[in-house]
């Protein structure tokens, strides 16, 4: 069990650029979650997958955000036309089922200049 | 909607002091309750959880009891150590949901 991994750990980009983050869940987990955490706040739910199906999306996930989990394993989160307000820590978590503990990765810190 | 309110931080204590971090929640049903901890430079880790009223979660000397009548889940530890310095988050999941709802976090600093 190597835990949830995320790549990159840090990303600095200029406003208007596109960025993509990757999350590798714990291998036997079929649920994968994305959260966003801004400074001084708790994480906020963005979306989650059961296997490859995206089952819920928060209204926080604007049209510029898209998430995929094409083979039910790793997931990507893409932000198009980044804005300074997108600067945050993006957290990924996985679990083995509904009601089970969510295990978090170290996060990707995005800074939009 | 569901929400979690934690006591404002930061909290600074001396080693071996008693710790309480207050957490209250608002939920429409019967949520499961969690405390997560974030050590400096690390990801969120589950500290303890409770899934029904009057359950007590415990781990590493920390305890919290699910109080339905007061909608609370206060975190306590009898004797804190410097290594407990971290940010602590209270969270809930409503029954049938997969979405964790977090409080804002409470930063704890323990001085030797």
Structure description:
The complex is a heterodimer of chains A (113) and B (112). Chain A is mainly beta. Chain A contains no helices and eleven strands. In chain A, the strands form two sheets. In chain A, strands 2, 4, 5, 6, 9, 10 and 11 form a seven-stranded mixed β-sheet that branches. In chain A, a hairpin with a 6-residue loop joins strand 7 and strand 8 (75-79). Chain A starts with a strand and ends with a strand. Chain B has 112 residues and is mainly β. In chain B, strands 2, 5, 6, 10, 11 and 12 form a six-stranded mixed β-sheet that branches. A four-stranded antiparallel β-sheet of chain B has the order 3-9-8-7, with no helix packed on it. A two-stranded antiparallel ribbon of chain B has the order 1-4. The termini of chain B are far apart. In chain B, 38% of the residues are buried. The A-B interface holds A 4, 31, 33, 35, 40-45, 48, 55-56, 58, 91, 93, 98-99, 101-107 and B 4, 32, 36, 42-46, 49, 89, 91, 93, 96, 98-105.
Question: Notable features of this structure?
Answer:
heterodimer; A: 113 residues; mainly beta; B: 112 residues; four-stranded antiparallel beta sheet; 0% helix
Can you summarize this structure?
The complex is a heterodimer of chains A (113) and B (112). Chain A has 113 residues and is mainly β.
Topology of this structure?
The complex is a heterodimer of chains A (113) and B (112).
Chain A: E1 5-7, E2 10-13, E3 19-24, E4 31-37, E5 44-50, E6 53-57, E7 65-68, E8 75-79, E9 88-95, E10 103-104, E11 108-112
Parallel strand pairs in A: 2-11
Antiparallel strand pairs in A: 1-3, 3-8, 4-5, 4-9, 5-6, 7-8, 9-10, 9-11
Chain B: E1 3-6, E2 11-14, E3 19-21, E4 23-26, E5 32-38, E6 44-50, E7 56-59, E8 62-65, E9 75-77, E10 86-93, E11 101-102, E12 106-111
Parallel strand pairs in B: 2-12
Antiparallel strand pairs in B: 1-4, 3-9, 5-6, 5-10, 7-8, 8-9, 10-11, 10-12
